[in-house]
Design goal:
single chain; alpha/beta; Rossmann fold; three-stranded antiparallel beta sheet; disordered N terminus; binds adenosine-5'-triphosphate; ATP-binding; ABC_transpr_LolD-like; AAA+_ATPase; nucleotide-binding
Length: 265
């Protein structure tokens, strides 16, 4: 496949940008310098479900952390919902992340000592502007939507990996974030649980228009997204847009991964 063919030219018109990166570079270290992201520009429209793929060390997680405002850029501009995280104080940035973004991680990052329901309620508890009864009602509704209404009273070690990740998704969406950021959300799951999790992201995106970025090594996971951005050496290498057929998209993704390296699993 040629690079021109990979950069699908069908007209896609995403909504207003929820994320835009312009000429963004990130260099780690002072003495030993690692250029993890190199003049990268990327626009993600509101309501998009996008995967970021690329070989190990290509800069995927760094890009996600730059979008989240967890890492400062070395140069260039990042905007999330029109806001440049660099313009915010540390405290404002923390509030921005807590109220406007939702995070999902490979290892779930649930609090072991809390129940599944308490984990899902956590962002509401931190915001401290809702009554306990309302927080419980909202967390139950989210859990039922995600198919884990029956394990709300369980501790984290009493649920499966797939249920734990669904709880983490519940925690990520309960406050109605503008943008969901997921770093290898299916990396610790078996194939069936991974498909369930991606079906949930896809449903949230289609029914509720939740803008989502998923970093993944896994072509099957990426095939649930509508667009895949391939990163190599810290810059955008190519992109694919999904038409209707998810399995055909999966094959197209594997072909690009063969070309640029990356597992595909
Ligand atoms: N805190 C850090 N300090 C120094 N170098 C770092 C740091 N974090 C990442 N790097 C380097 O930056 C480059 C990009 O790393 P990053 O984790 O963003 O890549 P990735 O594509 O997410 O990799 P993987 O798929 O293996 O998770 C790599 O060369 C990595 O070694």
């Amino acid at each position: 496949m040629t690079e021109t063919a990979m950069r699908n030219t069908v007209t896609h018109e995403p909504g207003p940008a929820v994320v835009s990166l312009e000429g963004v570079s990130k260099i780690y270290g002072d003495t030993v310098r690692v250029k993890a992201v190199n003049q990268l520009s990327l626009r993600i429209g509101a309501g998009e479900l996008v995967a970021i793929m690329g070989p190990s060390g290509s800069g995927k997680s760094t890009v996600l952390n730059l979008v989240a405002g967890i890492l400062p850029v070395t140069s260039g501009t990042v905007r999330v919902g029109g806001q440049n995280p660099a313009d915010l104080s540390e405290e404002e940035a923390a509030v921005f992340r807590r109220t406007r973004l939702g995070f999902v991680f490979q290892d779930f990052n649930l609090v072991d000592t809390l129940t599944i329901q308490e984990n899902i309620m956590l962002p509401l508890m931190l915001a401290a502007n809702e009554s306990p009864a309302r927080m419980r009602r909202r967390s139950r509704a989210v859990a039922e939507q995600l198919g884990i209404g029956d394990v709300l009273a369980h501790r984290v070690h009493e649920v499966s990996g797939g249920q734990a990740q669904r709880a983490a998704i519940g925690r990520a969406i309960i406050h109605g974030p503008q943008l969901l950021l997921a770093d290898e959300p299916t990396g610790n799951l078996d194939s069936a649980a991974a498909q369930d999790v991606m079906r949930i992201f896809s449903d949230l995106n289609e029914r509720r228009g939740v803008s989502t970025i998923v970093v993944t090594h896994d072509a099957r996971t990426a095939s649930w997204c509508k667009r895949v951005v391939f990163i190599k050496d810290g810059a955008v290498h190519s992109e694919l847009y999904r038409e209707d057929d998810r399995l055909a998209f999966y094959d197209e993704i594997l072909n690009v991964l063969k070309l640029i390296g990356g597992e595909g699993r």
